[in-house]
């Protein structure tokens, strides 16, 4: 089962990488250096979790486990690319010396280390802005004969603007920075990670559901599921930072300790932290099942991501 899900994930990652290449900006003009840095940051690689969750949640609500129509993909793709660009920009800025100061990510030089701090800041800014420019293409690509409505696209775009912002990811990052080096309570750590890590997971799954026409009740269930997924994902990340190796993860381990950050492992210990991962995993899957859609891969994907080893 584990090998099968890995193979299915790899197929989807390959597909997503192809979609990303279609939308990445051309490296030309006087601003070529920042465009190169933007594309480098995206092409460094990654699990492509967020665009994958977006598409698979859409499939869950439409109960389509086969090929999506070209009309559907023409709307889904801009949002999938936008989610990955926003995630990538957050990593580019997170790696800066003013933040975590990491020099490697996914086994390659971080953007600031390769292009310098100033260009890295601009590359992150560029990816964030270009993400919204890209997502807006969903309206242009929309056709009246397609399954996705304009009102669904508007709802999805609204989610895309709110979740990564000051009430979501940026807000969580701000609280994290302000409290760096301080001893946090479990409640405070939960709050930070619910915003910092959970917000983009929530955006991805809720956008997929919204584009499929999910009502507010179902969107709330997906919000709860994605929140549990994001929290479990972060706890597992804390565990791996303590137990894995740089070679396995493709990024430095022990950076939390280096930056004097309070983690779930610090507060709970590895055994209790692992227990929390299990509880959150069960809750995330239960909330999805309550939506009564159909896509076995989505359930397998959520479970795999939470229990990943890298």
Offer a concise description of the structure.
Helix content is 72%, strand content 1%. The two termini are 18 Å apart. The protein has 16 helices and two strands.
Reconstruct the topology from this structure:
Elements: H1 2-23, H2 32-43, H3 49-62, H4 70-94, E1 104-105, E2 108-109, H5 111-115, H6 117-135, H7 137-141, H8 150-162, H9 169-178, H10 186-196, H11 198-211, H12 216-243, H13 246-249, H14 255-258, H15 264-290, H16 296-306
Antiparallel strand pairs: 1-2
Descriptive overview:
This protein has helices spanning 2-23, 32-43, 49-62, 70-94, 111-115, 117-135, 137-141, 150-162, 169-178, 186-196, 198-211, 216-243, 246-249, 255-258, 264-290, 296-306, and strands at residues 104-105, 108-109. It is mainly alpha-helical. The mean pLDDT is 92.
């Amino acid at each position: 089962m584990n090998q099968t899900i890995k193979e299915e994930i790899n197929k989807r990652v390959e597909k997503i990488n192809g979609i990303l290449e279609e939308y990445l900006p051309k490296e030309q003009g006087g601003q070529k250096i920042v465009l190169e840095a933007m594309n480098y940051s995206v092409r460094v690689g990654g699990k492509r979790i967020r665009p994958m969750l977006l598409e698979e949640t859409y499939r869950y609500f439409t109960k389509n486990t086969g090929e999506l129509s070209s009309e559907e993909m023409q709307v889904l793709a801009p949002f999938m690319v936008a989610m990955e660009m926003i995630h990538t920009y957050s990593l580019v800025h997170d790696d800066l010396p003013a933040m975590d100061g990491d020099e490697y990510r996914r086994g390659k030089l971080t953007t600031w280390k390769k292009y310098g701090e100033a260009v890295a800041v601009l590359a992150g800014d560029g990816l964030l802005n270009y993400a919204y420019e890209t997502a807006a293409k969903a309206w242009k690509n929309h056709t009246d004969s397609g399954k996705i409505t304009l009102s669904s696209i508007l709802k999805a775009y609204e989610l895309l603007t709110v979740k990564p912002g000051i009430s979501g990811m940026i807000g969580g990052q701000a609280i994290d920075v302000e409290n760096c080096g301080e001893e946090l309570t479990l409640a405070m750590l939960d709050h930070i990670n619910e915003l910092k890590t959970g917000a983009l997971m929530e955006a991805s799954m809720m956008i997929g559901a919204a584009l499929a026409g999910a009502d507010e009740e179902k969107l709330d269930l997906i919000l709860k599921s994605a929140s549990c997924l994001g929290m479990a994902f972060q706890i597992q990340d804390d565990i791996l930072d303590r137990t894995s190796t740089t070679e396995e993860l493709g990024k430095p381990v022990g950076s939390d300790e280096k930056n004097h950050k309070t983690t779930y492992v610090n507060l709970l210990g590895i055994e209790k932290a692992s227990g929390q991962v299990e509880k959150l995993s069960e809750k995330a899957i239960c909330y999805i099942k309550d939506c009564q859609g159909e896509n076995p891969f989505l359930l397998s994907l959520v479970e795999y991501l939470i229990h990943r080893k890298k």
